[in-house]
Amino acid sequence: MLNSIPDKGRACLDALRYRAITSAYYWGAVGALLVYDVTRHTTFENVSWWLRELRDHTDPDIIIILIGNKSDLRHLIAVPTEDGKAYAEKESLYFMETSALEATNVDNAFAEVLTQIYHIVSRKAVEAGDDAASSAPPSTGERIKVKDDASTMRKLSCCST
């Protein structure tokens, strides 16, 4: 039956399938790397669509870093660094250029996203803790005794001989 669908119908069907999985795919995302190819301007033009897609289907606090990849191909640049920076600033995104070929800034891009996610999650945990502390009754604890047996610890050591 699918073989009888004309090309436009097939594209429409593919779009419907895509829409059906979108919310499941983005659900729970706390960070995103939005990557374009600095040697192909059309990929930069598509960034606004992908950014809208992210913002429509994710938490408003999602950390998004805009990445211009293939920075090693300076002689083929179609999207100047300044354009990427300006767009990122306008949209309140982090920005970085990378070269996957030379492994330039790739680790830094992931580290930056993870660092920013950590800050957001930590802030939310503190805020939630403040709310819980002000409304929860004082808790009663139970004392736990831990037996300190050094000889047992030596026996369990993986490096003992």
UniProtKB/TrEMBL annotation:
SMART domains in the record: RAB (SM00175), RAS (SM00173), RHO (SM00174)
GO molecular function: GTP binding; GTPase activity
GO BP annotations, alphabetical order: vesicle-mediated transport
Gene Ontology CC terms, in alphabetical order: endosome
InterPro entries according to UniProt: P-loop_NTPase, Rab_GTPases_membrane_traffic, Small_GTPase
Gene3D superfamilies reported in the protein's UniProt record: P-loop containing nucleotide triphosphate hydrolases
Region (Disordered): 129-148
PANTHER family: DRAB11-RELATED (PTHR47979)
Name of this protein: (wild Malaysian banana) hypothetical protein
